[in-house]
Amino acid sequence: MSAPRTARERARVEITREITDAARRQLAESGAAALSLRAIARELGMVSSALYRYFPSRDELLTTLIIEAYNAIGAAVEDAVRAAGGPRAQWIAASNAVRDWAIAHPHEYALLYGSPVPGYQAPQTTIEPAARVPLAALGILRAAVADGGLARADESLSPELAAQTASLAAQFAPGVPEANVARMVVAWTQLFGLVSFELTGQLVGSMDPAAPFFDYSVAVMADLIGLPG
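Above: the chain sequence. Below: its structure as tokens.
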């Protein structure tokens, strides 16, 4: 059992949370490019030098926000997959978890999947959290192979694409045909494109409200992937 936190450690955790909460409010009001440590310090009634002891730079604060957001959407998708039945139900549940999280956290979703923040270069520490959703998707493929329910795609891929999908399959989806891996990547990117279209109002006046079209698209993508009904 880990030792209990000291009062100083608890205070640091609480102040860090207050800073990141204030930063999320700034994201909602001004966008990631305008994120300002000085403005956050003013909002919290702190001197800038005190805030810098927690986050020495804007980029470190952005990295924390990005990692926390990736972990949040990743956990939502993983929980949805675990609670679902077979692979097709898992794909539908995962897709809905992405949409639900994005609608509930549009500004954090934009931070992850929108335009890059000028001058910011994401460090290596963001890679593992960012991989949680695609790894969950590839896990659905593994489950479909394991229960014999994957409709194997047999189309030929270009040599370059075959090499890319073979590498993904070897690392994260052993036993899954390369074409099915490629189709999952198509579906994964389509899913996030669809969610982004909805959040930015691109479906207004056509597929509005978006839910019926979303459900239809997710089912079409399940067929594309090879997940039986």
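The chain has two domains: 1-56, 58-225.
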